[in-house]
Structures are given as structure tokens and as C-alpha cells.
Amino acid sequence: GDRHLSAEELHEEAQAAGVPVSLATVYNALHQFTQAGLLRILAVEGSKTYFDTNTSDHHHFYIEGENRIFDIANGPVTVTNLPDPPEGMEIANVDIVVRLRPKRPE
User: Fold this and answer.
1) What is the pTM of this model?
2) Which end of the chain is more exposed for a tag (fewer CB within 10 A), N or C?
3) H or E element, residue 11
4) Domains, the chain
């Protein structure tokens, strides 16, 4: 299935599998795959970046404190009143990340 991985997580998986690869090499490969359209970048928490194997247009839930991302099931997600882009630019895509946390006791 589709996965959402950080470079650090993928590096740890490679190390656990006995693959001798540096974190820099993992980053470089992930960015090359992204440029080739094989992965999609998700920036969700400051400098924390995830790579999504599902490159189709879709949106995400992000669980705060757990650093977990999962796809929002295909359905109507509507964004209205987008700002006009600057002169000479057009909107290419809108990425939505809905942040979740456990309900607080009432």
C-alpha cells in the first residue's frame, strides 16, 4: 500500500535490513524520486518532511504528537475563496493537511 515516510525512517529501515547507506544518500534519492514524479513531498511539522508514495491528488490527516500521516479517503474536500495568485503565476495544487489530536476530557 501507499506509505508516508521521512528520510530518517527510511534510513532506519535500510539499516535494519543490512543495507549500508548514508542518510545523505537517502535524502538525495528521495528528492530525485520526487523530481521524477515517483514521490510527493509533504511538509507538516516545521522542518519535518515526509515522502508519499501516492502521487495522485489527495489530502492527509496528521496526528500531532505521534508524527503519523494517513490519507483522507476520497471524498468531497472543498476549498473556497483562494487568494488570487501573483501576476504571472497560477495555482498548481492545494495540499490539505488536517491536524488531529486526542479529544480532551470535558
Assistant:
1) 0.80
2) C
3) helix 7-16
4) 4-100 (1.10.10.10)
